[in-house]
């Protein structure tokens, strides 16, 4: 069990801390390697490059320099004390803004669990969950305000100003987490749909053959469990309900077009007896196959 580190007595944590830093050049000594407390943190790299390890996760963020700057943001969750290890420094400038909140910030804001977004809750639930993203103009404007607060602000007014900008940044970060999660879910949903369409095409092409779930899964590149669940979710029926219905459709078409016998139609639909075929046929089409073949059906 991960042990949560509480703030030291007499030193209450802020809900959000906003800060900026600029170094003309960096080295491993510029930012001390140390153990850091559990937190939700966002770095917005405005210029420069930094590479480091957090536990077993490696990060290399490069925002470029001068005219080629392309700001990058990194948001991550630490749910236990973690060692940060910087790998190297550079002779070029590094400018970044950081936004830090305790991992318990949702509880501290007294947001009820039922009112929390599932995307944000999932992101907050795992050590070293992270997201690399490109900040938009709104986020960059906030970074500029944090880096260069009005000079006339001092004392508690300055802290209030930074806290307000920090909360605005937190809102932007949470929106980005939700957007990224929804985009990932949408992409996954589309991939599933494409895969299940592939399964359906395979079934239609092999209706005359003996079909087993293991073979269908193997030849369409899916697992048996995923195939059964996802096919039903996509099309509202099981794999073999679809197969039976498609075979009946094929038999019905042959009755209408070729006037084959009911017994031939039963065999075409995969039924061993004419009686069971007639029952299934009437259930699906509301009429018996003989009436349909003879042109007396509905």
Automatic annotation (TrEMBL):
It comes from the Bacteria. Pfam families: HTH_18. SUPFAM superfamilies: Homeodomain-like. PROSITE patterns: HTH_ARAC_FAMILY_2. Residues 197-295 form the HTH araC/xylS-type domain. Signal peptide: none annotated. Keywords: Transcription, Transcription regulation. PANTHER family: REGULATORY PROTEIN PCHR. This is Helix-turn-helix transcriptional regulator.
């Amino acid at each position: 069990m991960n042990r949560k580190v509480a703030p030291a007595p007499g030193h209450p944590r802020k809900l959000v801390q906003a800060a900026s830093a600029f170094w003309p050049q960096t080295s491993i000594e510029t930012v001390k390697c140390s153990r850091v407390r559990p937190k939700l943190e966002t770095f917005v790299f405005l210029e420069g490059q930094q590479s480091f390890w957090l536990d077993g996760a490696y990060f290399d963020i490069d925002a470029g320099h001068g005219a080629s700057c392309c700001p990058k943001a990194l948001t991550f969750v630490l749910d236990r004390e973690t060692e940060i290890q910087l790998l190297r420094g550079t002779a070029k400038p590094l400018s970044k803004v950081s936004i830090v909140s305790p991992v318990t910030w949702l509880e501290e804001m007294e947001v009820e669990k039922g009112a929390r977004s599932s995307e944000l809750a999932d992101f907050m639930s795992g050590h070293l969950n992270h997201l690399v993203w490109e900040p938009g103009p709104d986020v960059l404007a906030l970074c500029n305000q944090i880096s260069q607060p009005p000079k006339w602000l001092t004392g508690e007014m300055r802290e209030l100003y930074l806290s307000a900008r920090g909360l605005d940044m937190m809102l932007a970060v949470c929106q980005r987490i939700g957007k990224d999660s929804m985009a990932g879910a949408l992409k996954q949903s589309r991939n599933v749909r494409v895969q299940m369409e592939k399964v359906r095409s395979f079934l239609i092409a092999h209706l005359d053959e003996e079909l087993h779930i293991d073979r269908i899964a193997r030849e369409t590149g899916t697992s048996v469990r995923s195939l059964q669940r996802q096919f039903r979710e996509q099309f509202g029926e099981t794999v073999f309900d679809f197969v039976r219905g498609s075979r009946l459709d094929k038999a019905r078409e042959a009755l209408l077009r070729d006037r084959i016998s009911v017994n031939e139609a039963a065999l075409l639909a995969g039924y061993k007896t004419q009686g069971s075929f007639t029952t299934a046929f009437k259930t699906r089409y509301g009429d018996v196959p003989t009436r349909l073949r003879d042109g007396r059906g509905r």
